[in-house]
Amino acid sequence: MPESATKSNQDRPLRIFLSSTARDLETHRRAVAETIDHYGQLSLKMESFGARPGSSLEVCRELAAEADALVVVVAHRYGWVPTPDEGGDGERSITWHEVEAAVEAGKPVFVYLVDPEHPWTHTKEQDRLTEPGADPAAVAHAVQKLGELKEFLSARVRETFRGPDDLAKKVSRDLGNWLVRRRQGGSGPPAAIDLDRDQIAAEHFAEQAAVRFSVTNLSRAQQKVGLHLVVEEVTPSEVVRLRKAGAILKEFDLEAELGGPGEIDLLAGKPVQIVLAAGESEAFRLVLRGQEGMVYRCALAATLRELERQQESRVSSAEFVIEFPIRSAVLLRQRRQAG
Amino acid sequence: MIDQRVEQPCPKCGTKFALHSRPIIDVDRQPELYARFLADELNPKACGGCGLKLTLDTPSIVVRRHWIGVVLANPRPIPIELASKVVHTFLSETPDLGLPPDRPVLVTGNDEQLRRVIRSDPDDRFCTVRFDDLTRRNWAQEIVALNVIADAYLEHDLPEQAYWVYESALATFPELYFHRRFFDTLELTALAAGDRIAGGLIEPRSAPDDLELKRQALEPQRPELPEWLAHTHLCFFEDDRYFDQPVQLWNVRVELLQLDEQETLPFDRAELHLTGVTPQAILPQEPSRLERGVMRILIVLAVAAARQMLPGDPLDFAWVNNLTGAFFQLDWERMSAAEQAQLKQIYSQYTGRDLVQDFALDDSG
After folding, report:
1. Is the dihedral of CA A118, A124, A127, A129 positive or negative?
2. Interface size, chain A vs chain B, as Cβ–Cβ contacts under 8 Å
3. Are B206 and B306 in the same domain?
4. Of A96, A140, A189, A324, which one's alpha carbon is 20 to 30 angstroms from that of A261?
5. Radius of gyration of chain B from Cα atoms?
6. Does the residue B283 lie in any domain?
């Protein structure tokens, strides 16, 4: 039976393989992985493979082939080249092998190449010439092969990126569209909540933090959306920060008062109805007020009701944590006295 | 005498008209008068005889269940001592009112500001500063800069160093101890530091121990202020200019507020905000240029020390340095030769270095 026909497979998160060199693209990889997580999908990356039997090349090719899609990011390094002893050909890098495996398995490949004009502070392939004991011939070969890899990848639909944020935005857009198309084909979750993690902070205000997120209707039907904040856990914070004066936050359209664990209906009492057409997204800004000196582990949830069939479903965002540091001597004194 | 209904002749045609002088508007007892106040129809705007435009601003008191509003209607900014006296007189002479023990008093410069407060538009929050804070000199901008430095230490789990940033300012200007927000932070950093002892101290001791010494030395000098000043608030709007005078940089940390549905004042929910405008109704008390110069030198030195001790370079440091440096340059140019000489001497005592050289100042006199 094909995978897409089984209910369990319809509901499972999609596995998206992340292929790139590691050290020079660490922040980029993290940004892409977070984007994948935001869509409620599973990112497969070398950092999380753990110990597996078989050679690394074999494992990577297998995972890339089994994944539902592959995201490949290439900048200025060619990366590890498996030797014939390691199962490779001594020419193609691990990234190349992974892309090939996904292509051979008929999986979609999303290609992101660094903008050659973008300033780059990490070591480039050619910079290895300055390393002690560098083999000029090997470096020159790697530079040439990097060019060939980029040519190979350029034959596919590709996008250039500048920094990690730019990359994350483009991956988010492409994955979002792909997920919509997949959903229209009858699989995957009915919606995605894309959380802008960078905005979650109680940096300047003792009692409020800003959360920005969007909800995308990935189904073919028009959906009425309900929004909820699920507080999973509340624990004390030990962090002490000074209370700063900040900018005035005016633009928030949703707000919630964080209390104990539980669920908060973000649209309760609001004279609005949110209805999303197929493939449509809506962005939200939520201001959260919490108690000084507490940490809240939360997630956002969207309930979706198909207007035609009145069928209901629910999706959740990735979890996020908001910390409201201790900002007053009174509270700190109480904590110290309580031991 | 307050709350009088008086007749005045028009200065142009002599036509008599009635006006309220210093009205006391009790919302529950005089709803009609309150409605006229809200509609800005308490006093005529023009002479009924000749049409001469009249400006008949008068101090007013609006009595609400949860708070009392006082409109100063002062034609020019006044010192806090005078403003306090005016408010005290209004409230203590108001029949059946007296000085409320804990009911907040909202003081505005003009009646339109009080109306804006009452309208309670969510997009039009007002700034509040406590009267007792206004009795102290305006070190707000410097306290904000110290905050940035201390916070950087806290972020790197060095609360004991954060404490000594404040202590160095306090050692030079003991009056800071009586600044509510300065003291709160001083105590917070001391508690966070616990028994950790910062390096490089001539007399090593923990921050709480040092704070206790400060407390013993300074508490007896605490100025005695009437309690009602602590719940009397100057209220103003950032966009409002009601005196025809240049905008001054005031730089005071204010609490942004809006009356809630029950018309109470949710101070616990107020947002801390650094305003850059003068509220106009009350004159801020500024330290002298020389004192400001000394404080700014302390800040620049504290930033330099933090930069040496902490990894990276917090972005806020550049902001603090640029702002402090720019204001310092500006003040330097306005100082007398004697003040400049004094500052150079102080700097040399602190650092053993030359102020003019270090800050690239114009020393041509």
Report:
1. negative
2. 56
3. yes
4. A189
5. 25
6. no
Q: Taking CB atoms and an 8 Å cutoff, what residues of chain A touch B141?
A: none
3-state secondary structure of A84: helix
Residue B245 has pLDDT above 60, yes or no: no
Note the Cα B139 to chain centre separation in Å. Answer: 9
pLDDT of residue B9: 85
| Mean pLDDT of the region B307-332 | 80
Of B123, B192, B253, the CB nearest to A250: B123
Whether residue B270 is found in the same domain as residue B324: no
- For B187, name the nearest residue in chain A, comparing CA atoms only: A329
Q: Are residues B183 and B322 in the same domain?
A: yes
How many domains, in total, are found in chain B?
2
β strands within B94-152, DSSP E? 105-108, 126-130
pLDDT at B80: 92
Taking the C-alpha atoms of A288, A294, A299 and A300 in order, what is their torsion angle to the nearest 10 degrees?
-10
Ramachandran angles phi, psi of B38, nearest 5° = -65, -35
CA distance B210 to chain A (A): 16
For testing contact with chain A, the best of B149, B272, B316 (most A CBs within 10 A): B272
Residues B311 and B190 in one domain: yes
Nearest residue of A to residue B271 by CA position?
A205
Q: Which string of DSSP letters, residue by residue, matches B320-353?
A: HHHHHHHHHHHHHHHS-HHHHHHHHHHHHHHHSS
DSSP state, A207? S
Residues B215 and B96 both lie in one domain: no
The answer as to whether B113 is a domain residue is: yes
For residue B365, is it within any domain? no
Q: Is the pLDDT of residue B139 over 80?
A: yes
Residue range of the domain that includes B125 = 5-136+227-277
Return the sign of the alpha-carbon dihedral for residues A118, A123, A128, A129.
Answer: positive
Contact B268, B274 (CB under 8 A): no
Top-ranked range on mean pLDDT: pick from A206-215, A218-227, A259-268, B353-362:
A259-268
Q: What is the pLDDT of residue A327?
A: 87
Write down the ipTM of this complex.
Answer: 0.74
What is the model's pLDDT at position B328? 81
Q: What is the pTM of this model?
A: 0.67
Is residue A236 scored above 90 in pLDDT? yes
Judging by beta carbons within 10 Å of its beta carbon (0-12, 13-18, 19+), is residue B92 exposed, middle or buried? exposed
User: Between A42 and B254, where is the model more confident?
Assistant: A42
Chain A's closest residue to B257, CA to CA, is A248
d(CA B21, CA A266) in angstroms, rounded, equals 50
Give the range with max mean pLDDT: A127-136, B124-133, B169-178.
B169-178
Q: B107 with B11, same domain? A: yes
Residues B9 and B49 reside in one and the same domain: yes
Do B130 and B144 fall into the same domain? no
pLDDT band per the 50, 70, 90 thresholds, residue A41: confident
